[in-house]
Design a protein that fits this description.
heterodimer; A: alpha/beta; Alpha-Beta Plaits; four-stranded antiparallel beta sheet; 13 strands; 30% strand; B: 13 helices; globular
């Protein structure tokens, strides 16, 4: 079941002086399923936060369609099962952490007993139980993120939209939050994670979309995004062996005494390469698709030809 | 609604606004006490008893109560001018607007909760004034209920202006300046008939009349209040219904504006 569906979603910010319209989202079509952690990657200004705001009806759509739980964003019911942690949030700072959770619960239409049943567990989950009665204005950046995460979960939402959830959190806290997210996903909830931290997305997300200049540049599982198309790494004993790959199979990219990298015309041709190597009595220890880091894949995706790599 | 009311109460204390109301009320009580001692001295000089004195000055005492409550309403308007712009700053607007509540409902509930909480403070301080009048001057009139009712209406009218300006501009300063501008315009329009006569232009007459009928008429509402208090006949109800229409219309426009904005 698709929790979020967008079709040719476009958002153009029209400045008051008519000049210099900014295309924040340009024909974004996505379908996000129940029970997955979906990572949204992109450089600054790629449209990640705008995507969240459009889903929630905070920003109006210029063109295209959006459905959240099958409802358009103008319908408040579409947000009934959604928890949101905004980027650069500024929660009402006259409230305490506990007060924020209660207030959020009220805004979500929860009763006092429902709120009471959730607050203690959530405060403990984000390790904020000791600070629950301290005013938010006294919180550090990390504490604000933690309480922000708790408020996003107060109504036990089926979909969590998290915009830079680990921003300002120490490395231990980041691991804790990642574990919390995985636990929530295992409960069948859906999480859309917007982050600059590629390692965070790589370790938690089931699928990733890379946004660049308002468009979906690539989408797939982390494995798919980090695999080089039809490139394989073969480990074996190549010392003093002449290896040449016929053109109809592919080409040799590099070779050393124990490692051969080939690019094939199609994935299935790997069997031909293996046969070829075996016929030359080369001992093969491992064959695997060539992988790059998500960071490398991301940089290649968002950097246009001729542009300097970040 | 309960959540927003509670939030407004917490905010009222956190911003220490409540203390300003407290200080102003204390000053008012002090002045009421001083008036009493002046009255006692006057009693001795002109040889009237206290009850006759109070009866003679009852209208003035009620006007004093009305003035005190007008000051409280003014303080409340200044205090609430920043609440909507504050709610709509980047990062906080996202928090409110991401909740399963329509924008119109959110804005109306926020406005009503501000009105209830700050209006409640105005009434509470006003009641202290009434009690002080009763204790110091042995004076009480049920007519004060009209004053309370009309001051609450006045607060709602001013709220509609600051909320509109707050949504439109997102600025506290603009909200305060808008309320002040409307106040100044009201004052200028008190001279409307004289200006029409002096300028003798159809365009000026039309414009002045148009602005006059559109804008709320707080001074004339005060006159209606005092006439009701003193049980005198009301010359015209127009200032009342046109002011209510202004507030309702402006709130409606504000919700439309809020509904279609990007945050």
């Amino acid at each position: 079941m698709n929790i979020v569906e967008t079709h040719e979603l476009t958002k153009v910010f029209q400045p008051r002086r008519k000049k210099g319209a900014v295309v924040a989202l340009d024909g974004v079509s996505l379908a996000i399923q129940q029970g997955e952690i979906f990572g949204l990657l992109g450089p600054n200004g790629a449209g990640k936060t705008t995507f969240f705001k459009v889903l929630l009806g905070i920003t109006k759509i210029t063109q295209g369609d959006v459905l959240l739980f099958g409802l358009p964003p103008d319908d408040p019911q579409s947000r009934q099962k959604v928890g949101y942690l905004p980027e650069s949030h500024r929660f009402p700072d006259h409230l305490t952490g506990l007060g924020l959770l209660e207030f959020t619960g009220r805004l979500c239409g929860m009763t006092t007993s429902e709120i009471d049943a959730r607050t203690d567990g959530l405060l403990e989950l984000v390790d904020m139980d000791k600070w629950a009665n301290v005013k938010i204005k006294r919180y550090s950046k990390g504490m604000l993120q933690r309480i922000g995460l708790a408020q996003s979960m107060i109504s036990d939402p089926d979909l969590l939209l998290l915009d830079e959830p680990t921003d300002g959190i120490d490395p231990v806290g980041k691991v804790e939050i990642r574990d919390v997210l995985i636990r929530i996903r295992n409960e069948g909830k859906t999480i859309i994670l917007n982050s600059h931290l590629l390692s965070e997305v790589e370790s938690a997300a089931d699928r990733v979309a890379i946004l660049s200049r308002g468009k979906v540049a690539r989408i797939g599982t982390v494995d798919e995004l980090t695999s080089r198309k039809s490139q394989f790494e073969i480990e074996g004993d190549f010392a003093s062996k002449l290896v040449s790959i016929p053109e109809e199979i592919g080409r040799k990219l590099s070779i050393s005494s124990n490692r051969l990298i080939v690019e094939l015309v199609e994935d299935s041709k790997i069997n031909n390469v293996i046969d070829l190597l075996r016929s030359k009595r080369i001992s093969i220890r491992a064959v695997q698709p060539l992988k790059v880091s998500l960071e490398q894949s991301f940089i290649e995706t968002v950097t246009q030809p001729g542009e300097k790599k970040a | 609604m309960r959540g927003l009311i509670r939030d407004s109460v917490v905010e009222l204390f956190d911003r220490k606004v409540i203390y300003v109301f407290g200080v102003v009320t204390l000053i008012a009580v002090g002045i009421i006490g001083l008036l009493r001692s002046a009255e006692v001295r006057l009693e001795g000089q002109i040889g009237m008893d206290a009850d006759s004195m109070t009866e003679m000055f009852s209208d003035q005492l009620l006007s004093g109560q009305s003035l005190f409550m007008s000051i409280l309403v003014f303080l409340a308007v200044m205090a609430v001018a920043g609440l909507i712009p504050n709610m709509l700053v980047k990062g906080r607007a996202d928090f409110y607007l991401s909740k399963p509540i329509s924008r119109s409902a959110l804005l109306l509930r926020k406005l009503i909760s501000i009105w209830i909480v700050y209006g409640g403070v105005v009434i509470a301080c006003g009641l202290i004034g009434v009690v002080a009048f009763a204790l110091f001057n042995s004076f009480f009139s049920w007519g004060v209920l009209w004053i309370f009712l009309f001051k609450m209406l006045g607060l709602l009218i001013w709220l509609s202006i600051v909320v509109f300006a707050g949504v439109l501009s997102g600025s506290t300063s603009v909200s305060i300046m808008s309320a002040f501008s409307v106040y100044v315009l009201q004052r200028i329009l008190e001279w409307r008939e004289m200006m029409i006569e002096f300028l003798d232009s159809q365009a000026v007459t039309f414009s002045l009349n148009l602005v006059y009928y559109i804008l709320p008429k707080n001074d004339e509402l005060s006159d209606i209040t005092m006439r009701l208090v003193e049980q005198k006949p009301i010359l015209s109800w127009m200032p009342l219904w046109s002011s209510i229409l202004f507030a309702v219309g402006l709130i409606y426009i504000t919700t439309l504006l809020f509904k279609h904005r990007d945050y």
